[in-house]
Amino acid sequence: MLPLPLANVLVNNLLARERYGVVPWLVAIAAAYYFALNHVAQIQPQRFENIIWTLGGFGLLLLLVCLVYTWQDFRRLKAGATLQSVNA
Question: What's the whole-number mean pLDDT along residues 52-76?
C-alpha cells in the first residue's frame, strides 16, 4: 500500500510544477484500474485479496510513471543549473 501515497505526493509535486505531460498517463492508469476491478469482480467476486492485489499493482504502476516524470524534471532542472553555471 506504500506506493499509492508516495505516488500521490509525486503527482501533487508534478502538478504544482505545471508538468502536465503526466496527466494522460494518469487518466489511462485510472481507466485501466476501473476495467481491471470490474474484471476481477466478475471472475471471483468473493475474493477480496484479488482486489487488494489489483490496487497494489496499479499503485506501483502509478508510482513508476510518476518517478519517470519526476526524474525527467530533475534532470531538466539539473541541466539548466549546469548551463547557467557555465554561462556565468
Answer: 92
Residues 66 and 72: their CA atoms lie apart, in Å, by 10
How far is 6 from 4, CA to CA, in rounded Å? 5
Residue 55 lies in a domain: yes
The helix/strand/coil state of 41 is helix
Q: How far apart are CA 72 and CA 19, in angstroms?
A: 10
For residues 51 and 27, give the distance between their C-alpha atoms in angstroms, rounded to a whole number.
Answer: 20
C-alpha cell at 64: 513508476
Whether 4 maps to a domain, the answer reads no
Q: Is residue 64 part of a domain?
A: yes
Confidence band of 80 (pLDDT split at 50, 70, 90): confident
CA 64 from centroid of its chain's CA atoms: 6
CA dihedral 43→58→12→83, nearest 10 degrees, is: -150
Q: For the whole model, what pTM was predicted?
A: 0.81
